[in-house]
Design a protein that fits this description.
Helix content: 25-40%
CATH architecture: 3-Layer(aba) Sandwich
Distance between the termini: 20 Å
Number of strands: 6
Radius of gyration: 13 Å
Number of helices: 5
Order of helices and strands: EHEHHEHEHEE
Length: about 120
């Protein structure tokens, strides 16, 4: 899976995703401090799914109509120990294969997904 992981994700998440073979770009190291719109544009250009803990991406995709054909996965889970967060992220991503072209919200006990606009 080609992923663009937002800078607010713990390093353990990035390490776990890379360990399972995903192609991961981490904003924290590749483009620290950039605006969320630039992150979304980069994900679309590179055909990567955005993984974030930041609700702003939903607002950008739905309220401002920015294209996000790649897909956005928002994790709304408790940020406990980084290793636990990493396990939850990896487990959630393994449950589906339709992350692209959707805005998905991963919560503690469920995953919601809906198509993104402007495709």
């Amino acid at each position: 899976m080609h992923l663009l992981v937002d800078q607010n994700a713990p390093r353990a998440v990035v390490s776990a995703l890379r360990a399972r073979g995903d192609d991961v770009v981490w904003v924290q190291t590749e483009m620290p401090g950039v605006d969320d719109r630039i992150i979304l544009d980069a994900a679309v250009e590179e055909n990567r799914i955005v993984l974030t803990f930041d609700k702003d991406f939903g607002e950008l995709a739905f309220h401002y109509g920015l294209p996000a054909s790649c897909g956005v996965v928002l994790f709304r889970i408790r940020l406990t120990a980084p290793e636990k967060v990493a396990r939850r992220v990896v487990t959630a991503l393994a449950t589906r294969d339709d992350w692209t072209r959707r805005f998905s919200v991963v919560e503690e006990h469920r995953i919601r997904a809906r198509p993104l606009p402007n495709l």
